[in-house]
Structure formats: structure tokens, C-alpha cells
Amino acid sequence: MRLIPPMRPFTTTRVIVMLFVVVAATFVGRFVWDDVIRAHDVPRGVTVAGISIGNTDRGTATERLAPLRAVGDATVTFAGESRTESLTDWGVVLDTDATVDAAAGARGGFPLRVLRWGAAVVRDRTIEPVWTVDRTTLESHFGTGSADPDALEIELTTATIRLVDGRFEAVAPESVPIADVDALEAALLDAVGADGTPVIEVPVAGERRVEGDPGLADAANRLTARSLEVRLAGQLESHVIEQSTLREWLVVGDVTTEDELTFDPARVQATLQEIYPTVGVDGVDGVQFVVGFDAELYLLGALPGAECCAADSAERLLAAARAGHEAGTDDAIIVFPVEAPDAEGLAWAEDLGITELVGEFTTYFTPNQTRNINIARISELTRGAIIEPGETFSVNDYVGRRTIENGFVSAGVISNGVFSSSVGGGISQYATTLFNAAFFAGLDFGEYQSHSIYIDRYPFGREATVSFPAPDLQIVNNTPYGVLLWPTTTDDSITVRLYSTKWVEGAQTGQTQRTEGTSCTRVTTERTRTWVDDGHTEVDTVTARYRPEGINCNGTSTRPTTTTVPSSPTSTTVPTSVP
Which end of the chain has fewer CB within 10 Å, C or N? Predict the structure, then answer.
């Protein structure tokens, strides 16, 4: 019979050894998985200025570090001038590549990698950010002839002309100190993290003699002597670029001959974008919502969105200036939009969900009245306006002050409870029609106010008036879809149609009135809104307050003793139609 040797008893030493082997195997296994197999660019536990970038690739680490900015200010002095700016404004920026390189290099050789990985399990390792100075940003604050009037006169260019009071002049012959910009950069980097606001004295690297060039100044003035007329392709309206703007465009630093004079593309682009801020909305290489005579909605120009303007715009305008183009005497210089997927193009239009009629209302007026001109004009100005989800449409903000220059005429209005006349009179009929279309479309209202005197062509208690700057009419889009305004007029009516996707419907379900003061009537109109998706309902109200013509709610007169009331007002019928 074979005897089985007895098992040796577990001693404390054996237990400790076995536990050590298990722990070591687990440690090594986790290390191999985490630092060898998965092998991220940045090892575990690395932070930069409190931002964790451990166990990430370079792209992720770079993205996380993007918001990091140098903290603090610095005062720079040179040649008796001084200026205080934030370090970021001086041009101190994170050197992201170098910082990520330092973080990735935190891994080290194999034995050190093991130790650092183990330490990172319990405590993060901090890598200091690497900073650098963007030379372009730094130089934008300095230099003779800088566009900034508060700039320090540190000579960083060899410009021989400068813009003074709207004209180019030759720089006066003088000896100017030359700043040691390399030393300035080093000092700015040393200022990162310093207490307080360090004062940096810019060292002088030497000096040089600057000789102005009167001939170059004359050439710059001739080149920019005439205004230019510009037009965006696809639009009829042109814009005049004045001489002062052209001279701000001109680049004169380091220019020695007339042929080297150029327009700064960035400044040209900024000006054109101010002129044409909404290319897509205007339908240039973008889209337009259009309602046909059949009241059906159409989407035109199914092309990508666009923005202003093409990169060759500065070259086109410079060529025109060299050719002697002058606004008003030659055809406008054409600049072109460029495709921009994020602009208001087809995808934007489709995402708005403007697909069907959701609200409509019509009011009527007597043909051939002066006020009808104003109703047609404000309808034209707001036709095609879009209220995006969550936004508020303000009549006054959108249209602005009603003026003769903008196509409005003088017509009847109600002012302080008395009929009179003013430019834009009659457009409250537009406001009332829009108010009712929004009422039945279930939209919310911001600011609104009824006429002070009831006029029987409007729904009693359910109407609105406008004047500039107040009262205003504000429509709030409380739906997840865009809302398109489409007002139209005929010889005797105005109709406002609202297009969107049906989300909520409104209906008048009640109305009450009470006396306010001794002479006024307060009308409260109840609206029940029904949501299309689940059928639930909510009740809200709108209000109106009416008074007799020329009478306050307390019964006193609103008429000045020296005022004569017009005998035949053009905006409405007065005596019997006013309750």
C-alpha cells in the first residue's frame, strides 16, 4: 500500500509569501493590461493644471487642455510708455503639443514606468503646462502706425508711412529704439503664475534711423481716394465702401513700393460680413420659404447654406481700386458667397419643421385709404420672418421705427385716447391680425396691448396695437418647430398666415368684462389650448382695456384745451362704433 505523505501545515511565513505572490501577480497583470496592452499615449494619473488627461490618446488630451488659459496680468513698459493687459491678451498661450509631449513622456523607462504606474493608482501625477507666446498677437499691441491709438510705440515694423487723421503721411525722420522682442517673450513667460501684476521693462536691442517715404504716402492716398461699390452675387442691392474704410484696409507695414500695397484680407472679410450677415436667410446659395397664390408652402433653392465671402474678395476689391473704380460711376464689384454647411441652408430649413399652415386670420379695411399703404409696407417687411423654437418675435425690433425713408406715410393713429395722425398710422391693423393668427395657433405672447378705443373692425377684446418704441407686440414660439410669418394684403384686407408643424391649437372658450374706474371697460378673453400629441388642454387669457374717446378711466378728459380734434379721421369711424 502506497502511503500519501502528510501535508505540511500552513505557516505564517508561507501565508505571507502566498499573499505577496497573489498581490504581485495582480499588480503585474493590471500593469501589463493598462500600460502595455492598452498603451494610451498619456499614462494613468496625469493631470495638467488640475485637468485630468491620464489614460487618454493625444487627441483627447489636446481637447481637454483647450480651455486652459494663462492666469494673471502684466504691465509692459518701453520708452516711457506703459500698458497693462492680461497675459492671454499679450499673447501667452498654451503650447498644447509640448504639454502633451511632456505628459506622454511621464511614462519613462520600464522600471520607472512600473513604479509611476503603481503610484498613479493612489495619487495623480502633476505635469506643469508648457506656455509659449503667439508673436502675431503680441505684435498686434505694438508698432508705429498701429490701428490701436493706445498702442505702445514699440517699433516692430519698418513702416515708412502711417495713417494720420484719415490720410497717409510719411513717417517723420527719427531715430527709434528697437525693442528686444525675444527678451519680452521670455519675460512674459516668466510672469505666468507670478504674484500680483509684474512690471516688464522691455530691453532695448539698439536703435535705427527711420526715413519716411512721401512718394509711398501719395501712392497710398491715390489708391484709396475713391469709394468702391460692392455687391454680393445673387443680390440686387449694392453697398458703398467709403474712403475711410479702404484706408483702414490698406497694409503699409514693411511696404517699400507702390506695387506692394495690399488690402488686409481679414479686415476686408470683417467689413463684408457686417454688410452681409445673413446670406442664407436672403436665399443666396441657400434657401427661401415662399407661399404661393394657392397658400401652399414651397422651399426654394435647395442648396447648402452660404456665408460671405470668398477668399479672393480682397484681391477683387484691390484690383478695382487700382483700375480707378468709383462708386456710382461703374458697375458694382461682385463678391461671391462660399458654401457653409452650418449656415442657414437646406439642413437648417428642414430641421425647422416648417411644413404646414398652423394659424391664419384676416381683417378688412376700406380701400383707397392712406393707412393701407402702411399696412402693405409692414406686411412686406415681415413677410418671410422666422421665429425659431424658443425665440420671441418683436414687431418693433424687427421693423424698427416707421419712417418716410422706409416707405411709410402719415395716417391716422390713436394717441392718449384721441385720434390724430403720425407716420406709420394704421399698422395696428397688421398687429391685430398677427395677434389673432398667433392666438389660434396656440403661441404665447410677450408684450402686447390693445387699442385704447375699441374699433369695430377688430374682434372685441382680442386685438393689439403697436407704436415705436412702445407699445410692442411680441410673439413667443413655444413649440419645438420654427414658425414662418406670411402676411399678405389685398385692396380691402390683410391676412396673416403662420406656417410650422401643428403642435398646439387655440380656441376662444369664454369672455368676461368689467368696469374699471368710472369710464373704462376691462375685457378678459379665455383661450383653451389643445396639444396635438396627447390631447391635453390648458387655459390662459388675454386682456384688453377700452375707454371712450378723450376720456381717462377716472372720467377726466385727455384732450388739451388748445387741441382741435380732427373732424374726419382717416384711421377709423369715431362716434357710433366706439362703445
Answer: N
